[in-house]
Known about the structure:
The protein is mainly alpha-helical. It has one domain (about 1-140). The protein is built from 6 helices and no strands.
Amino acid sequence: MLDLVLAILHHLLVFALFGILAAELITVRPGVSLETVKRVGTIDNYYGALAALIIIVGFSRAIFAAKGWAYYSHNGFFWAKIAAFAVVAILSVPPTIQYIRWARAKQTPGDQQVRSVRSFLFAEVGFFALLPIFAAAMARGYGEFQ
Length: 146
């Protein structure tokens, strides 16, 4: 039962994280208002919290669930998935910093600043797309090494 609960929770959290990423991408556009900037900052806080929960639940699943750590730790696709998630996390830092700066400055961002943030958001989406690819390969036993 623990395996099922952790799997469900892990998947729901990942889908929620992607939803928040999509919301940021849709919301952060040239001409964004100061009110929207504040809203995006709040959304981004949820993004960080969900990412932390995904790490906790994901590693709990890898350690305590049915397949166990021995299965995951010897799988290249598991490590590729972890690396892709780390890249997404690193790419999320510059937008977060910008949201904080925009909110503190109490002024709307310029179009160039918005385009810069959107380029990071698009890169996050690109690396995020690798997660289900690596997960599907891993779940089917591909990438096993000794």
